[in-house]
């Protein structure tokens, strides 16, 4: 059982964060791996130099900051809540987040630092930042350990049919992930096929609507684990993601796209639909970001697409806790736009 840190009142947290030693005290290297702040309480504004310094440091800490007590948050203190990395309310358990941080501290820190950094950036800039962080973690000890200890996965049998089916119906284009025997695991083949299809959409204004679906029992079960660790080096992997990143093309044509998801929507299975203008989920759909447990961060654009839908704090909660989110909860979060039977 992971020990829960003692939450600091907002006033006490500001005193601690105003110190020139705050980055040493709250650090996964030299101090506490988590800063837990009780956001409910008297209003605290940014009038003083100490408060301004504390607010700046809160967004720069080399640890994860978690805000609790949002149910009683005063409007005057919203500026402090927005600076925290994760929000925990009555419907979001704290323990899975703490366990995620304890089990994979490097990936957890990278996740919150990346989402802090990318919050004001363009989609393109955010995707480049995500890829650079992903490649860095591919060289790290947590991913190396996961690769060594994981159960080996066999790749799929070669298939002559395209990984993404394209069907034109007048002004509407249907794109379907078509590896149902692999639960539509997002392989390099599928990534390249989707990128190619979206380039067609981007260049053809006669396509008025695009519908993205998945064949079989799952929309997409996430990255193809049989391909993990098979590229020659992380730097080359970054160049590949910079060249063939379907998230970039999805964002470009988002106003013409909707996703219809069902069953497992894991990793790329929600990171990519989140770029589209409308996500319709079957009631059996469930959503999961497992990458922190592998020593990685979401790498299919999720650190860009999800914060734009549900906010940085809820994105970090999903990633660090690795909690599975059902369709109804996804609707409440704004992760999907409608739920149908």
SSE layout and pairings?
Blueprint: E1 8-9, H1 10-17, H2 22-25, E2 34-38, H3 49-58, E3 64-68, H4 78-83, E4 86-88, H5 95-103, H6 105-118, H7 123-138, H8 141-149, E5 164-169, E6 172-177, H9 188-203, E7 209-214, H10 234-243, H11 246-252, E8 257-261, E9 264-266, H12 268-271, E10 278-282, E11 286-288, H13 302-310, H14 312-321, E12 325-326, H15 327-333, E13 338-340
Parallel strand pairs: 1-2, 2-3, 3-4, 6-7, 7-8, 8-10, 9-11, 10-13
Antiparallel strand pairs: 5-6, 11-12
Please explain how this structure is put together:
By secondary structure, the protein is of the alpha/beta class. The protein has two domains: 8-84, no CATH class; 131-153 and 161-340, 2-enoyl-CoA Hydratase, Chain A, domain 1, CATH 3.90.226.10. Helix content is 41%, strand content 16%. It has helices at 10-17, 22-25, 49-58, 78-83, 95-103, 105-118, 123-138, 141-149, 188-203, 234-243, 246-252, 268-271, 302-310, 312-321, 327-333; strands at residues 8-9, 34-38, 64-68, 86-88, 164-169, 172-177, 209-214, 257-261, 264-266, 278-282, 286-288, 325-326, 338-340. The chain is globular and about 65 Å long.
């Amino acid at each position: 059982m992971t020990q829960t840190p003692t939450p600091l009142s907002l006033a006490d947290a500001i005193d601690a964060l105003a110190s020139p030693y705050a980055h040493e005290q709250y650090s996964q290297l030299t101090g506490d791996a988590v800063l837990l702040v009780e956001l409910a309480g008297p209003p605290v504004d940014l009038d003083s130099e100490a408060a301004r310094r504390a607010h700046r440091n809160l967004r720069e800490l080399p640890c994860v900051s978690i805000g609790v007590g949002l149910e009683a948050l005063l409007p005057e203190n919203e500026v402090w809540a927005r600076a925290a990395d994760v929000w925990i309310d009555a419907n979001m358990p704290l323990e899975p987040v703490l366990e995620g941080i304890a089990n994979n501290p490097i990936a957890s820190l990278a996740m919150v630092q990346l989402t802090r950094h990318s919050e004001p950036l363009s989609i393109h800039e955010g995707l480049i930042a995500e890829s650079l962080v992903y490649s860095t973690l591919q060289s790290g000890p947590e991913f190396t350990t996961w690769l060594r200890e994981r159960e080996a996965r066999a790749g799929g049998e070669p298939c002559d049919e395209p990984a993404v089916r394209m069907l034109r119906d007048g002004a509407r284009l249907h794109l379907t992930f078509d590896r149902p025997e692999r639960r539509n695991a997002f392989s390099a083949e599928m990534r390249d096929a989707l990128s190619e299809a979206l380039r067609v959409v981007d260049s053809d204004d006669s396509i008025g609507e695009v519908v993205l679906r998945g064949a079989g029992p799952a929309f997409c079960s996430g990255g193809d684990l049989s391909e993990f660790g098979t590229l020659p080096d992380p730097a080359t992997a970054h160049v590949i993601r910079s060249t063939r990143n379907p998230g970039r093309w999805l964002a470009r044509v988002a106003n013409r796209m909707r996703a219809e998801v069902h069953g497992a929507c894991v990793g790329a299975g929600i990171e990519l639909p989140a770029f589209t203008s409308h996500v319709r989920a079957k009631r059996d759909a469930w959503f999961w970001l497992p990458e922190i447990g592998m020593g990685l961060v979401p790498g299919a654009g999720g650190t860009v697409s999800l914060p734009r839908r549900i906010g940085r704090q809820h994105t970090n909660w999903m990633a660090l806790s690795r909690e599975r989110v059902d369709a109804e909860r996804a609707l409440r979060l704004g992760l999907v736009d409608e739920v149908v039977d």
